[in-house]
Amino acid sequence: MSEQSSGEVYYECVRCGTTISSTELSKLLEIKCICGYRILKKKRPSVVKIIKAT
């Protein structure tokens, strides 16, 4: 599930932790998880970007 290579954005349910892609969400009538909870958070990449200040 590489977010950068496919351009896909993944969301995670706050209640049960299920991962849902943006294409799966666009196919649904309502934005909610399979458990029925409507609060999703955007998953962050595991790689931390370090930018050198000049």
Q: Keywords for this structure?
A:
single chain, 54 residues, alpha+beta, three-stranded antiparallel sheet, 3 strands, elongated
Structural description of this entry:
With 54 residues, this protein is of the alpha+beta class. The protein has a 3-stranded antiparallel sheet with strand order 2-1-3. It starts with a helix and ends in a 12-residue tail after the last strand. The chain has one domain. A hairpin with a 5-residue loop joins strand 1 and strand 2.
Can you write the helix and strand succession as a string? Answer: HEEHE
Distance between the termini: 34 Å
Helix proportion: 10-25%
Query: What is the topology, as strand order, of the major beta sheet?
Result: 2-1-3
Strand content: 15-25%
Uncertain regions: pLDDT < 50 for 5+ in a row?
none
Number of helices: 2
Largest sheet: 3 strands, antiparallel
Q: Could you report the average pLDDT, rounded to the nearest whole number?
A: 85
> How many domains in all?
1
Classify the secondary structure makeup into a structural class.
alpha+beta
